[in-house]
Every structure is written in structure tokens, then in C-alpha cells.
Amino acid sequence: MRAQKIALTVAAAVTGLFLMTVGAVVVWPYLSASLEEGPQVANNFEQQLFAPMVDMQMPQEKRIAKSELPALRGATVPVKEFTLSAPQTHGNLTIFLIHGRDTVKDARILTLQEALEQNVATVHETGGGVLLIDNRGNLPLLIQAGDIVKGGTQDRTLPFDMLIPAKTERMSIPALCVEQGRSFPRAGDLSTSFETATQQLPGRTLKLAASRKSQIEVWNNVRTLQANLARNAGGSVQAPLSQTSLQLSLEHHRVQDAVQDYLARLSPAADGKKDVIGYVVAVNGLIQSADVYASADLFQRLWPKLIRASAVSALAEKRPGNYQAPTVESVKRFLSDADRGDAFRVNTSSASHVIRQETDRQVRFDTCDSARQNVVLHRSFLVK
Description:
By secondary structure, the protein is an alpha+beta fold. The chain has 2 domains: 42 residues; 338 residues, no CATH class. Helices cover 34% and strands 27% of the residues. It contains 11 helices and 20 strands. The strands form 3 sheets. Strands 1, 2, 3, 4, 15, 16, 17, 18, 19 and 20 form a 10-stranded antiparallel beta sheet that branches. Strands 12-7-6-14-9-10-13 form a 7-stranded antiparallel beta sheet. A 3-stranded mixed beta sheet has the order 5-8-11. A hairpin with a 5-residue loop joins strand 6 and strand 7. Helix 6 packs across helix 10. The longest helix has 41 residues. The relative contact order is 0.16.
């Protein structure tokens, strides 16, 4: 009996060893391939945590017939009525102030930054490409394309203008990530909401990437911007707390110090100018963008954020050489060019819609206020 048990035990052991050997032979090619590919997958953010950010649901665009434009786009100051200031230049950054009349005399609109600072708005984290916003205030608030909200589980940028009505809860707003790799709150930040909106996307390439709703392009442009800022600011501008965060790079002391001369020379240009409704930006002698608003008051409240973003863009693109400022005539041609382009209706909400008009050289966005007969609150121009 004892001999029989020993024989059975030996047979079982031999059978087990045989099965393990066969299994190893069959499985090894797949296991080996998996091990070889493992590190690539582990570092591929698109395939892991951030797939929702790549495949976000964004508003559909609808082509607008020329005959429909007058009804969809309300009052705005025609380019031929603009008066442009002489160019004002510091280093490689040139600005032209745009003088014109108000189309909205009493705007009574908060900016997103003002609403957050006054604690009448909350931008809620959702973990995806669409955030939610509450506006508890008595005034509508204007989200401006390129606004960066800091906090949550990833810093985001809001790629389209959008008007949020007063007393609104949980309104959806499209968003793109400007901090690849983080999916948890930073120390001291809330995970459920965003606390500040003090910065704007700097530079036309980042803004164009956001307007195309391309998460990959946005991430790539953030990396390029960080590298260019590091080259011209004297060292790395990546924060140890989150090296991929655009917001933290814009807050970095090297960037803050490097843009001070631009701000000191050009920021006062708009002081006391009660008829300035916008400005044009040129970097290295080339026109980059322009922004025009429905009132001088709205422009003045946004001016500090706008000129800072322009200064950061100029710092990033700084190259040796002497650059000649564009002429006033070339600026006016740039501002008029978009009228020739095809028009599309984008990012329609209950309170506003955006009209995108595009040529082969530039794109223009008109943000229309539904409650004010579609008056254009903000007109943004970008060179392609």
C-alpha cells in the first residue's frame, strides 16, 4: 500500500511538471511580447488614464450660408471704423491698440477670473473633457477661449468663448488638459473643483490647437512652449510638483522675472484710454493675433491677462535679430481678411454661440450674445 502511494505521488509530480513545461512553451511567446511592450503601454497616457481627454465630446460645427450671417451675427464695429494707434514695441513684441465705439454701453458681464475671485462661480471637476460650471451671481459671466483653470485632477484650458447666464447650475463647458500625466489633486488643491483662472494660453499655435479640439496638439505645444521658455528664461521652467503643468510653468519665477520688462513697457499703453476696445499682437515683426470687445470696460478688465499672455508668447519666440513692426495698413488688411472665409456655427449654448470664419491664412471667432440680439461680445483673430 505504501509503495502504491509513493508511485501515485511520483506520477502526479511528473504529470504536473510536464503540464507546467508545456504551459511555459505555449505561453512564453505571448508573455515575452507583453513584457517587451509593457513599458511602452505604461507610458502611453492616451491608452490609459487620459483616453477620455483625447476622445472628448465637443460641439459639432454647422456651416452658415452667407444669407444667414446677418441674423446670427449682431452688431459689431466694422474694421473700417477702427482707429489704430501707432505701434508700440519692446524687444520682439509689438502691440497696436484698437480705438472704437462701444456696441454694448453697459456690459454688466463678469469675467471668469472675477467670478471665481468673488466666489460666485464654481468650475467642477468631472474627470473628462467636459467640465461643469455654476454661476450663482446676478450677472452673466464670460469664459474666454484660452482661459486656464487651475486645480482639480488636471489643469485645463477652455477652448471656446462661452456666456454663462446668471443663476445657472451645472452647465457643461468643453475643456482640454494642459497638464499631461496628473490624475489626482496636487497638495493643497481641491480634487472636485478649480480655484483660479488667472492665466491665458500664450501664443497662437497653442490657441489654434485648442480651437481644433486636438488634445495631442495641445500637449505637444505645451512641451514645446516649456522648452522655448527654458531656453530664453535661463533654465528649466518645469515645476517639481508637476513638470507637465502649463499653469505652474507660467507661474515659475524665471518666467515671471523674464516678462517683467515687457509688462513694464507695454502694459501702461492702455491706461486711461476709455475708447480702446482691443489690440493687435505682433511677435518678431509678424502679426500673430488680435482681440476686440463690445466695450472698452470689458477690454480694460481683461487687459492684464491678455498682455501677460502676449509677453509670455514673445519670450518663448525670442530670437536674435532686429525686427521691423508691421505697418498700420498691413494690420488693417489682416483684420479685414476673415470676411472672405467660410462661416461655421460652433459651441452653441442657451446664452451664446460662436461663429468661426476662416480663410487659408487666418481664422476669426465671433462670440454672440443671444440675449442682446446676437451682439458680438468678443472678436478673436488668429494667424494660421
